[in-house]
Predict the structure.
Amino acid sequence: KQIVSNFKERMRYYKRRILPNSNEIVTNFNKKVTPETIPEHNDIHKTEYFKPTANDRCFIADEALRLDSTDFKLRYPLLTNGRFNEDEYRSFAETLGDIQLFISKTLEKKFQVTKLKQYKAVLVIPDLYDKVYVENFIELLLQMSFQGVAVIQESLASTYGAGVSSACVIDIGAKTTKVSCIDEGMIIPNSRANLSYGGDDITRLFYKLLKESNFPIDYDVNNDFDWPALNQLKEKFITFQDANVTVQLYNFIKRYPSKLSEKYEFKVFDEVMLAPMGLFFPKVFEKIKDFESTPFTNRKSLDVYNGQSNNPTSTTQKNCFENNSYADKIDFEVLKDLLNPDTLEDAKEDEVPTIAALDKVIIQSIANASRYDFSKAKTFYENLLIVGGGAKIEALDFILTDRINIWRPKILALLNLPDFLKKIETLSTNFEKEHEFSKIQSEEEIQTLQIELFKIIETELNEFLESVNNPLNPVEVLPAPRDIDPSILTWKGASVFSRLKLIEELWITEADWDLLSSRTLQYKALFNY
């Protein structure tokens, strides 16, 4: 209901006319649809399913999804968020064995690479990584005989790919959505957020909305062989371009193994925009799937001295987990928080990943990234870099810009906020000196004076917000450079990284790993490991 209401409000704002009985037209048309069988010679995109021979032991990647046999078991060695899948395997070694098989077979098949000892490898890891994942992966690559391994974090690789030094990177993947701010080639640790929804959740929601409109084709969202077709449906039809949201007639082909394909005609209306709007109303995703309750991997990386988890954490992640967002606060509450940065504590590993609206997370991430220098907020807002498959949603940049402008508290939108904060700090210091806070013993007296100080600050804030001379920070989304597919921008950045002179200092060899093991990363990584 919230999403539909928000959608209608947006259409009214942009003066887009909606026919009152649009949903009814769609439902009634879809009820009566009958499929048209396509002769094999006319089906140019037919999926070629095949039967295995007696000598076949395993199939990987696309082949595994085109196998017409019940004798094989489909397995995914990696789960979301840098987690190894140990549930479907008999041992951890077997999981790693499948990953090794996948890498070596892919390199051999796609690039005719068989002698790995002639190559080095760049490993791209999440910004909020799990140390068990990173260390085991490096070990695995060295065991495969790569000469050396260099490690780079995802969002930093994205900026290398885009050719920018500072940006707020929004990575919308299949399972997770991540936000991080990069300042002159360094990730700001407390700006990182990892959210447990992505393109797959949009696919599920889109199909659910279509079925409510009597969509004529039946698929099973839990079936690995139906899933590529559902993804294709989503990629073809979803949009944020409100001019395209009208009752439209489309067609789609359902393909089967060992059977002729069927062509269906169907109508859609607002489903094409309601489904991706789940990014801003992620609670809807919780209604249609069970989120993984186990964060990271089943294996914990623990500090050798205190026995506590030593995986990286982030203030933004903690804020998202606690539903404590600046976007939901009044300006005075935001100001009080900005004046007391020391009250913020680090997050815990159990808070990764979490759920929060994407527009609010971006505002939170930029605020935390600029906390000690608010002049940086302008750079981040002007350089929003969207990567991953989600970046291909039509007009995503347009709606994201709108929603950030709507939800951003006015105090965080103002360009001259740094000057105002300096003024308030000076005012507070003078007030404390004038009333000799250091000499007061009574807590009641201090509280009374603090209330008085807050009233003065609130008055100053109201005057500042009402001033007509306050320019706003513009919000701009960077286009992908030179028509590069945004879903591979991170990999493009990793290849750029591999060509820099700097990387010669960062290669981890087998000798390094044998000598220092994971401590090597303290000397051979661009970030604090």
